[in-house]
Amino acid sequence: MLKKIILALTCITAMAFADGVGNVNLTKVIKVDRNLSPLAKKCIECHAEKTPGIVADWKSSRHAHASVSCMDCHAVPADSPMAIQKEHPKDSGNHVSILVSPKTCSKCHAKEVEEFQQSGHARGGVQMFAKKGMLELMYHYEGRDHPDLKDSPAATGCVQCHGLEIKLDKAGYPIPGKGWPNYGIGNAYPDGSVGSCKSCHSSHTFDIVEARKPSACASCHLGPDHPNIEIFNNSMHGKIFNTEGNKWKWDSAPDTWDVPDFRAPTCATCHMSGVNDLNTTHNVSVRLKWNLWAPHSKQRTGGFETAAFDYAKDGKLTAGNVLAGNPAGPEAARAEMKQVCKSCHSTKSTDSFFISGDMHVELYNNYHSEAKAMLDDLKAKGLLKADEWSDEFQRIYYHLWHHEGRRMRMGALMGGPDYAHWHGVFEVQQDIRKLKDIYDARIKSGKIE
């Protein structure tokens, strides 16, 4: 009997302790007494009660260790284009913005923000709203030009990954229903800056470990048109990561994260990390030789991306520099990527891999040239419908380059055989046959079926 009483008391005590541990990060009472301003302390103490999840994220972050507070990121001058009009806290004389733009992050992370703005990621939002075809797709074809509902396809879909030009209402809050809040990589802010650090380092932890894992990229780089996470999982790199990635060291300092911290690369390793002789970069385009997303793949000879700088200069939305890459040219980009491979692969092995990958890209271009020639001929002869989405030829052409063709090219250069072949070239060659049949019928009859 005595043993049962002791056991019962032990269980009750353990359960009470467990309850306390489980809530420790969401405590609604927090007392801050260190190198912070009185207003910064007040923000933390008040929001620990109002929004405890945000404060819990912040207190586990490097920012908290370095005494970077809410005020450092959210406080703005009263006349800032980002400012909420009402003082916050009330009668404090202080103004805040609900938005934190790259310009704010650049106060401490100037190099990272500049590199980001030189990358293709920076044009993600502005280019979408600079293209007539994308606007028609989002608002006319998908949104049906509905007076109240036409924004929903962009707001719930495209903008969530690409970003948008954020407009504020008279009170200083983002206009609802347009796509905010989002984690879009290329948001354009009222202060003229472009980007979104929190796309990869979710707020308010801004964790380097999170950004180094494939899941940081997977929320946008997936699906039929750019299945990068699926291709990664199909590759040997993905197989090794999925087997043992939970045991790797993810929190090494920038420029030091290299083998043996990991045994296979992730997205961040190849495109951003300071491996071997490389420095860490936030320009994800600088190690890319080819433009693999375009209808026809060209080598990246355009230097740095320009969209963010154009927007900062005069607020202009542009399609950006579609051939942005390494300013020293595509071979320099490839040489940098090979530096990543060098940690685990011989030079012959790496060279042979890229020879095969480049051949597959050029084979895709061969298919696309044939498809484009048929498209141009039909257009010249008036044998295409004005509505491309009701025209079978144009629908197949779109899927050839935007879906199957991207899978073929990305699968080849990411080591994903199923996407290089079955989801790629096999379907591309099927598309070409369908296009030829439609083309021949229209040329012969002089009519659209």
Automatic annotation (TrEMBL):
<dbReference type="InterPro" id="IPR036280">
    <property type="entry name" value="Multihaem_cyt_sf"/>
</dbReference>
<dbReference type="Pfam" id="PF13447">
    <property type="entry name" value="Multi-haem_cyto"/>
</dbReference>
<feature type="domain" description="Cytochrome c-552/4">
    <location>
        <begin position="104"/>
        <end position="163"/>
    </location>
</feature>
<dbReference type="Pfam" id="PF13435">
    <property type="entry name" value="Cytochrome_C554"/>
</dbReference>
<dbReference type="InterPro" id="IPR023155">
    <property type="entry name" value="Cyt_c-552/4"/>
</dbReference>
<keyword id="KW-0560">Oxidoreductase</keyword>
<dbReference type="GO" id="GO:0016491">
    <property type="term" value="F:oxidoreductase activity"/>
</dbReference>
<feature type="signal peptide">
    <location>
        <begin position="1"/>
        <end position="18"/>
    </location>
</feature>
<protein>
    <submittedName>
        <fullName>Hydroxylamine oxidase</fullName>
        <ecNumber>1.7.-.-</ecNumber>
    </submittedName>
</protein>
<keyword id="KW-0732">Signal</keyword>
<dbReference type="InterPro" id="IPR051829">
    <property type="entry name" value="Multiheme_Cytochr_ET"/>
</dbReference>
